[in-house]
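Friendly challenge for the regulars: who can give me the structure tokens for this chain first? No prize, just bragging rights.
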Amino acid sequence: MKRSFVSLCITLVLILCFTAVASAGPTIDGILKKKVLVIGTSASYPPLSYKTKNGTVLGLDIDLAKAMASAMKVKLKIEVIPFDELIPALEKGKIDMILSCMTITPDRNLRIAYVGPYFLSGQALLTTKDIALNINGPADVNNPNFSIAIPRGTTTEMIAKKMLPLAKLVVVKSNDEALDLLKSKSVKAMMSDYPYVVVEAFRYKDKGFVANQPFSTEPIGIGVRQDDPLLINWIGNFLNMLKGDGLLNLLTQRWLNDSSWMADLP
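First reply, four minutes later:
Bragging rights claimed.
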């Protein structure tokens, strides 16, 4: 009887363990079953993620996604989604993860899990040389006479409203719209992630655009649903592997130091 009871206990433990393992990775199970990794990106933050003239999505984020898909031995599918709709898309299961120059913040982290950071960024202004000469810090633009275009639903919007409460903040749908306002001289500056404003300053140097030094430091991470500890663990180990052998640094420097890719920007 004792032996039968022990056998029954062992059987129950094995069943419970199997059930726990089977339910530990719903997202990664789906990826492996469909043999497709679906990532969401806004494709509006070069050099991390952007569209070329022919509509191809490229950037550091896309290189990381390709590397992950290759390691999983699955195909990669890229869904281009407006930035402020990425988290809802992840929560609804439309995408498997977010790779879109997304800053890790406490508010976002209450809704989704993050792995990283894999990149450090910060908020900076893109403006003209004559205006930039008078900007040494946030205090110099924090007044009602200084208009700044900012993309909606982003860390840029949160930080701008917190750091520059007196400035005239013009909230628009995307970085592209903010840039258009600056080019038409409808605003004095636009605010976005530092790598983005550096790229645009280079592209539009004929207009006298320059990028100010960042006002902040922000960790950029990969967003996933919180119900899959196996996927979170896998991505964390994958990033550590890339960092350890220097591949992540090589990928990052490729996009930051080599400007040849800018010729494909629209």
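The domain at 24-121+219-264 is CATH 3.40.190.10 (D-Maltodextrin-Binding Protein; domain 2). The chain has eleven helices and 13 strands. Your move, everyone else.
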